[in-house]
């Protein structure tokens, strides 16, 4: 069930209405929200529900044992091992089996094609597995106490707005708000919530899906003769915009729905394509994943505490694991490896005198932003095209193209750029009105009303001018 589908909107209305009725009775509120979240996850996929509940049960039990056992390290290894082994089984069995069959022909048989085609990955497993790892490790580190109530922990692990694609939350960002006496009874900042929801629907339905209509045929035939001579770079630019608008739309919706239930969750994006280095890009892009990789992978590996070589190795290993987290394909490993290499190069460059000399000069900053964006786009080729040959064909067509085909094609569709421009206009208008409203004075009341006008107009246009025949699933639902 996806946020833009009618069944979800109906479910949300029912869950919110029921919560409003029982919100002052904690046990009833917890039971109602858990029931709605499980129904959301099990919609058309009832067979996946035991997997989600097994994660919740094991993580809850392991955390209690960590807190009470004289040998907590054993339990933390068991908890982390369970989360990762189940994740690896579902996500990487086909890839590992194929690799073993290629390396050991005659020993490991090739799986039939229909067996691989029928292999399914529980949607959202990467996100709730990482949520479980963070909880178990934080209880071991004594940064959060174990939750005695199974149902309260289950609510924090599988609350439907953030369940499938994040943001990846830590216990102090959500679990602490569902403990006894802490459960919200009123929405938090409803104006901000509705703006996030309106903005999220606009990003998804108007911008991301419109871009998808323009670029998907090219990527589907990137290695075919039908795209010979076509300039690939504009399509990669647009894919960079599509995945940003699509994923940040999901985050906006999740955060907006969370606010309506009284929960404030962290930002996940901060204008990532304005970053002047790949290191800065990862401080702006999917920020909850970035900090998870930093705190639960990079730092435990040694971080930057064991010399230059180990620092670079730790960066590369962290990004390789981050790439594999996204999916069972060697192209995801290449995507992570490219980002790891970019981070290493950036650290080496930052230590030079020339980097210090150029620092602070606006011309260099602009050049660094452009260079960083194209480095990220190069990696996106391997993220978007999971067949390695297709990824290489796409990169090759950055430079091998017919000049007559450079400035035409679906990427130049005015509707695509109009959608992007409309989004920029709405954001500019909303920010301007909000600043006026916060400044006070005679225009504050008008500006406050104008903010609501912009929010409602954004939501209305998202519904009215969404591309016909679309409503594709969110890109990150596959992870």
Short description:
The chain is mainly α and 479 residues long.
Question: Please, could you describe this protein's structure?
Answer:
This protein is mainly α. It has three domains: 180 residues, no CATH class; 136 residues, no CATH class; 138 residues. It is 68% helix and 0% strand. The chain is built from 19 helices and no strands. α3 packs across α7 and α18 packs antiparallel against α19. The mean pLDDT is 86.
Secondary-structure class? mainly alpha
Low-pLDDT parts are none
Helix share of residues? 55-70%
Mean pLDDT rating: 86
Shape: globular
C-alpha end-to-end distance: 15 Å
**Order of SSEs, N→C?**
HHHHHHHHHHHHHHHHHHH
Quaternary organization: single chain
Number of domains: 3
If you compute it from the alpha carbons, what radius of gyration comes out, rounded to the nearest whole angstrom? 24 Å
DSSP summary: helix tally: 19
Binned strand content: under 5%
Total beta strand runs? 0
Major sheet size, sense and barrel closure: none
């Amino acid at each position: 069930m996806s946020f833009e589908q009618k069944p979800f909107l109906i479910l949300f209305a029912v869950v919110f209405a029921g919560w409003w009725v029982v919100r002052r009775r904690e046990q009833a509120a917890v039971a109602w929200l858990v029931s709605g979240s499980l129904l959301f996850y099990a919609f058309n996929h009832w067979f996946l529900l035991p997997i989600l509940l097994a994660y919740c049960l094991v993580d809850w039990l392991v955390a209690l044992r960590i807190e009470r056992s004289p040998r907590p390290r054993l339990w933390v290894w068991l908890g982390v091992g369970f989360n990762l082994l189940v994740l690896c089984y579902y996500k990487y069995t086909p890839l590992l089996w194929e690799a073993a069959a290629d390396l050991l022909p005659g020993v490991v048989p090739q799986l039939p094609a229909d067996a691989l085609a029928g292999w399914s990955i529980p949607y959202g497993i990467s996100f709730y597995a990482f949520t479980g790892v963070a909880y178990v490790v934080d209880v071991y580190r004594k940064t959060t106490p174990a939750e005695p109530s199974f149902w309260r922990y289950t609510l924090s692990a599988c609350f439907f707005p953030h369940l499938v694609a994040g943001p990846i939350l830590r216990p102090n960002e959500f679990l602490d708000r569902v403990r006894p006496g802490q459960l919200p009874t009123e929405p938090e900042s409803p104006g901000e919530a509705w703006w996030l929801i309106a903005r999220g629907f606009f990003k998804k339905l108007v911008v991301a899906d419109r871009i998808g209509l323009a670029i998907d045929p090219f990527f589907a035939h990137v290695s075919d003769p039908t795209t010979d001579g076509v300039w690939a770079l504009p399509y990669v630019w647009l894919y960079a915009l599509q995945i940003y608008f699509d994923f940040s739309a999901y985050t906006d919706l999740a955060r907006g729905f969370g606010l309506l239930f009284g929960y404030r969750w962290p930002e996940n994006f901060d204008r990532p394509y304005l970053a002047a280095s790949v290191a800065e890009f990862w401080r702006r892009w999917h920020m909850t994943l970035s900090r998870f990789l930093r705190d639960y992978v990079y730092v435990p590996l040694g971080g930057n505490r064991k010399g230059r070589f180990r620092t670079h190795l730790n960066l590369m290993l962290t990004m390789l694991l981050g790439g594999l987290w996204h999916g069972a394909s060697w192209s995801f490993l290449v995507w992570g490896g490219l980002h790891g290499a970019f981070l290493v190069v950036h650290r080496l460059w930052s230590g030079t005198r020339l980097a210090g000399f150029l620092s602070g000069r606006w011309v260099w900053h602009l050049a660094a932003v452009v260079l960083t964006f194209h480095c990220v786009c190069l990696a996106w080729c391997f993220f978007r095209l999971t067949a390695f040959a297709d990824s290489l064909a796409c990169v090759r067509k950055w430079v091998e193209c017919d000049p007559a085909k450079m400035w035409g094609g679906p990427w130049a569709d005015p509707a695509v750029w109009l959608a992007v421009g409309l989004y920029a206009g709405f954001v500019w208008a909303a920010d301007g009105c909000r600043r006026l409203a916060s400044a006070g004075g005679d225009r504050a009341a008008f500006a406050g009303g104008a903010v609501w006008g912009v929010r409602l107009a954004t939501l209305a246009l998202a519904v009215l001018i969404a591309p016909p025949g679309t409503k594709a699933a969110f890109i990150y639902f596959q992870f």
